[in-house]
Amino acid sequence: LCLCLFLATAYLLPSSTMAQACDSLDTFQWLLGEWIAEDDRRTTTERWMRVSARTYEGTGTVTEKDTGAIRGMESMRLVEMSGTVFMIPKAEHNLMPTPFRLTTCTDRSGTFVNETHDFPRQLIYQRKGADSMYVSVTDGAESGFMLRFGKRKAD
């Protein structure tokens, strides 16, 4: 009975909700490009580009809307190494980059975890439609925040 329920569930669920083997960057091609998140005070931008089949590079910038002052910068890499995918951000206030291992993924999301880091311990990238994405930055439990990005159209 259990096997039958599992097979029926696997057959009926759309492929976008099924977990995939999280061993390559192919799942994250949708991430490439420029993404913008805004609130009343700040604009957060992430820009991602493909460097190779095993490396994407990104930059993140937080800018104050009223003054244009840059409040934070981060360089990021999404890399596949020996069949494991890592998100490796380097915030300007940290001496070293912090690796997060991809633990679960679908064709629309990826969860990256580093249980030994103080904060964040978990990064969740979720594609919402063709031109929006949510990024959850959490301690893996109840503390954290979410950014809602829209994809900037190419000029």
> What fraction strand?
over 45%
In N-to-C order, the SSE pattern is: HEEEEEEEEEE
- Poorly predicted runs are 1-17
Mean residue pLDDT? 88
N/C terminus separation? 55 Å
SS-based structural class?
mainly beta
Rg, nearest Å: 17 Å
Instruction: Characterize the biggest β-sheet.
Output: 10 strands, antiparallel, barrel
Helix content: under 10%
In one word, what is the shape? globular
- For the secondary structure, the number of strands is 10
Strand order of the largest sheet: 1-2-3-4-5-6-7-8-9-10
Number of helices: 1
Summarize the structure.
This protein is mainly beta.
Features:
1 helix; globular; mainly beta; disordered N terminus; 10 strands; 155 residues; ten-stranded antiparallel barrel
Which secondary structure elements does this structure contain, and how are they paired or packed?
Layout (H helix, E strand, L loop, with lengths): L1 H11 L20 E6 L3 E11 L2 E10 L5 E12 L2 E8 L8 E7 L2 E5 L8 E6 L4 E7 L5 E8 L4
Antiparallel strand pairs: 1-2, 1-10, 2-3, 3-4, 4-5, 5-6, 6-7, 7-8, 8-9, 9-10
Task: Give a description of the structure.
- The protein has 155 residues and is mainly beta.
- Helix content is 7%, strand content 52%.
- The chain contains one helix and ten strands, in the order H-E-E-E-E-E-E-E-E-E-E.
- The chain has a ten-stranded antiparallel β-barrel.
- The radius of gyration is 17 Å and the shape is globular.
- 17% of the residues are buried.
- Residues 1-17 have low confidence and may be disordered.
